[in-house]
Specification:
With 292 residues, this protein is an alpha+beta fold. The chain has two domains: 2-61, no CATH class; 73-278, Fumarylacetoacetate hydrolase, domain 2 (Alpha-Beta Complex), CATH 3.90.850. 14% of the residues lie in helices and 30% in strands. The chain is built from seven helices and 19 strands.
């Protein structure tokens, strides 16, 4: 099954040809602002509706992030060998030499940065480089802590596409990757039973029709399960949390008016528009002050 959140607070299933949406909110009496999160945490069953006639054409609804506000967005840094080489060669991407998740761990992205493909990306500054990064992400089905890697797969609800939009610079990752609209998730979450091998999926990102990133998830340094195992050491990973797994080489800068087309094999595809503000980072006035 492929779940979508549409028109703000409704849960749906995509039809097999991706052209229609079957409304589950009415069928399951789901009344919540984050219906897929409620679905995951409860005992709902949508399997009987997979062959229902669509209630909406997908072109007539607004597709948001499948999970509106995940409790955590956990991200793995530098997890493809070719992107590691790219990052070391380009000091705008990172000033560090090679490091691994074992060296510095994962980082967190603000849940408020999460949007869906129809919301678009809004660049916050006119004078800072902001890059696209396509990643395979997944949504957790269960609460886990100190979990072994081989047990992770049965605790994943499903897989999705995530664009990790990133301001380049020396700031902490969780700062420069957490601006509003900087975590684009969608268009759907594909349940784990639909994906034979998540570590063997082709992915591609085009910017204005030109292929910038193309790779296979088999090239990850740390697998999906490895990332969860590490992140769960002493920390509870909760149902509905989104975990993303790093990007391959080919990242490049975004500009006002750009169009991103992102696709991952058997997961889906989405088109995302980019707009920019006129605000200059250099003109932002940050003053020290306040009472002690």
């Amino acid at each position: 099954m492929r779940f979508v959140r549409f028109d703000e607070d409704r849960l749906g299933l995509l039809t097999d040809d991706d052209t229609g949406v079957i409304d589950l909110s009415d069928r399951l009496d789901l009344i919540t602002r984050d219906p897929l999160l409620e679905f995951i945490r409860s005992d709902y069953d949508a399997s009987e509706f997979t062959d229902a006639n669509p209630d909406y054409d997908i072109e007539d609804v607004h597709i948001g992030a499948p999970i509106k506000r995940p409790g955590k967005v956990i991200a793995a840094p530098l997890n493809y060998e070719n992107h590691i080489e790219e990052a070391i060669a380009d000091k705008d991407i990172t000033t560090d030499e090679w490091f691994s998740i074992e060296d510095k761990g994962y980082f967190l992205k603000a849940p408020s940065s999460v949007v869906g493909p129809d919301d678009g990306v809004k660049l916050p500054f006119s004078d800072r480089r902001v890059d696209h990064e396509i990643e395979l992400a997944f949504v957790m089905e269960s609460d886990v802590k100190d979990i072994d890697a081989e047990e992770v797969w049965d605790n994943i609800f499903g897989y999705t596409i995530l664009l990790d939009i990133s301001v380049r610079g020396d700031q902490d990752r969780s700062n420069r990757k957490s601006y509003d609209t900087f975590t684009v998730i969608g268009p759907c979450v594909v349940t784990r039973d639909e994906i034979d091998d998540p570590q063997s999926l082709d992915m591609e990102l085009q910017l204005n029709g030109e292929t910038k990133q193309r790779d296979n998830t088999s090239d990850m340094v740390y697998t999906c399960a490895d990332v969860v195992q590490y992140a769960s050491l002493g920390t509870t990973i909760e149902a509905g949390d989104v975990i993303t797994t790093g990007t391959p080489e080919g990242v490049s800068a975004l500009s006002d008016g750009d169009t991103i087309d992102a696709e991952i094999e058997n997961v889906g595809s989405m088109t995302v528009d980019v707009t920019a503000r006129d605000t200059s980072f250099e003109d932002v006035d940050v003053q020290k002050g306040g009472q002690k």
